[in-house]
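Example record for the data management plan.
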Amino acid sequence: MSPLGPALHIGEAFSLQPSTFMRLRACLLAIASALSLASLPVAAQGIDLARYVLVDLTHEVAANGPAWPGSVRPFTLDTLVASPSTAMFRLTMNEHFATHLDAPRHAAGGGMTTEQLPLERLIAPVVVIDVQRQAAANRDYALSVADVEAHEAQYGRITSGSIVLLRTGWSRFWADPARYFGAVEEGSTLHFPSFGVEAARRLAVERGVFMLGVDAPSTDIGAAPTFAVHAVLGAASVSGLENLTNLDALPRTGALLLALPIKTRGGSGGPVRAVALVPR
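Corresponding structural encoding:
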C-alpha cells in the first residue's frame, strides 16, 4: 500500500551458533506440529521436511526493486563495515516495500500491530484461488464473490483459520515496474488485479480466514478509488500479504504457509519471508 510506514533501521550484526539454530528449528517444527493439520501428517518428533517441497514465495529485496509510485527511497543498504573478514550494513526500508505483511493496524486505528500478531495466524493451511485467465483479459480484475463460490464448488468450503492466496500471475511483471503497477508516475491511476471488496468481506468476515495474500502490489486493485479491501481486512483483524511470487508452484489446497514478519513494536507491517510447505 502507498502510505509510508515507519522506517526499519537494522545496524546490528549477529550470528547463530549451530546449537542455537537447531533449537530455533525445533521450535518452528513444534509450532507446525501443534497445528495438527489433517492434510499434513505430522511425525511424533515434528514434520519430516523430506516429505515436502519448500516453495519460497518471496521476492528479493533490492534498491532497484519496484516501489509504489511516489515512494521516496523505500530501501537503502549502507555499508558500515566491509573488510575481508567481516561485514555489517545499515538497512533502511519502508515497512510496505517488496514482499511484506500488512498488519491490521495498517488500515484500522485500533488494529493489531506487527508484534501483537499471534503465531497461529501466521502459520496456517493455504487455499489458492486462481484468476490468471481473468487477469490476463482485464488488468483491473477484482476477485468476485462468484469466483469464491466457484472455487468452493470445486475444492470445498474455505474453512476458518485458512490463508487465502490470490494467483493473478502478476508477479511475472516484477522486473518491469510500469507493467507491474500499470503506471509509474505519482498520482496516476494504477492498473493491476487483486481482491474485490465483497469477495474480501466474504473471506475475512464470513469465512474467518487469517490472512489474504496476492502476487500483485496490493490487496486492493490498482484502479480502486480507496483502499476499501484494506479497511475490510483491518476491521476483521485479518492481515494482508502483498508482492508474493511463485504462487504457480502451489496446489489449490493442501499446502502450509509460514509468513513471519519482522517483529517491530508498534509496526503497521513489515518485510516477510513467506515459505510454503507443499506435500510431495
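Summary line stored alongside the record: Residues 2-22, 34-44 have pLDDT under 50 and may be disordered.
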